[in-house]
Amino acid sequence: MKYARLTKEQFEELHQEFINFLATQSITGDEWEDIKKNKPEVAEQELDVFSDLVWLGVLQKVKYLEHISPQQIHLFQCNEKSMRLIALKIENQAIDFTTKEGFQWLRDNLLSDSLEFFNAKKDYSEDKYLDIFKMIQSGANITKGELFEYFANLIKG
């Protein structure tokens, strides 16, 4: 398995897609029940293959990621060959970007000297989608990119 097995809840949500996946391999419902009962290792492999296909479908659509921690915000734009990062950092431990108050402080103090901005570009390894997957596994969230675009325009201006 390249990514991670879907959770029980995710499999339940994708029940019809999983049935279609089995059908593409000419596995009927009865055959699937038989495989689960008599060949659990084969059933596990099918679950893993399906999970990887679902993950790949999701990862191919990712354009933006955000990772917000108390004193740092990392905003990523996932381009074809590389990833662009805009990062914000604050040393003041009293400000927590993960709270409504901390985020409001950020909005009110964008030009504060205590706020550091970083702008970088990084090429992917040989596997772009695995790179993105690892970031999600470490806490990044897939977004529509509003925050990234806001700060990208702010940096340009």
From TrEMBL:
Descriptive protein name: Histidyl-tRNA synthetase
Classification of source organism: Bacteria, Pseudomonadati, Bacteroidota, Flavobacteriia, Flavobacteriales
Alphabetized Pfam families for the sequence: DUF6495
Domain of life per record: Bacteria
Source organism of this protein record: Winogradskyella epiphytica
